[in-house]
Structure formats: C-alpha cells, structure tokens
Write a structure and sequence with these properties.
By secondary structure, the protein is mostly beta strands. It has one helix and seven strands. The strands form two sheets. A four-stranded antiparallel β-sheet has the order 4-3-6-7, with no helix packed on it. Strands 1-2-5 form a three-stranded antiparallel β-sheet, with no helix packed on it. The relative contact order is 0.24.
Length: 119
C-alpha cells in the first residue's frame, strides 16, 4: 500500500511540474492580403488575374483558388508574380477567383476574391 501511495504522489508531483514549463511560442507573421484584385477575361475560358501587395518583402508566393459553390475554395495554381493567366480549357462564365499571399515560413494569409463574367 505504501508503494502505491508513493507512486501516486510522484505522479501528481510530476504532472504539476509540467504546467510550470510550457513550450516556447513560435512567432507567426501573417502576410498582408493582396489588394486591388482584378479578373478579366480576354477570351472565353482564359482569365487574367492581377493584384498588388503592400509589403512584398514578407511574401514568398501567392496561391490561386477557384471558388466552388459546393466545396469552397479549390486550389488552382501558384505564382511568385502579382499576375497570372489561367486557361480553364472550356468557355465558362461567372467564375469567382481567389488569391492569398504566403510567407517565406509558408504561412498563408487571407484569401481575397474577385469575379468576372466570361464573354
């Protein structure tokens, strides 16, 4: 019985010390959101996306999304530039596109959206 009590006391002491030493917090920098996001369609199925960024020094690349009405944002492409042309292969209309910025540490910011009706 004394051995069991000693084990329980040691377990309680060990557990209480765990909270005294929390792991260090890693600094996370959320990148700025793209600004002035525009989408044009020079011809059916082809979309030109362009945007600006307030602080490009913290951005590694951008992720492009196509907003699906049932699935939400679906990854479409990536680019290091602030513009991209995407050919969807078919004459479609009323597509909603999204773009987000990603830091050098691979932290993704908020997605901003824009749409255009293809001719």
């Amino acid at each position: 019985m004394k051995k069991l009590m000693l084990v329980l006391v040691l377990a309680v002491i060990a557990c209480s010390n765990h909270d005294d030493n929390p792991p260090p917090q890693l600094p996370i920098t959320v990148p700025p959101s793209p600004t002035n996001f525009t989408v044009t369609s020079p011809s059916p199925g082809i979309f030109d996306l362009s945007w600006g960024i307030s602080d490009p020094s913290v951005v590694s690349h951008y992720r492009i999304y196509l907003l699906d009405p049932f699935l939400g944002p679906v990854f479409a492409d990536t680019t290091a530039a602030t513009s991209i042309q995407i050919n969807v292969g078919t004459a479609v209309s009323d597509l909603i596109w999204g773009v987000s910025s990603v830091t050098l540490q691979n932290v993704e910011g908020y997605i901003v959206y824009a749409s255009v009706t293809a001719p």
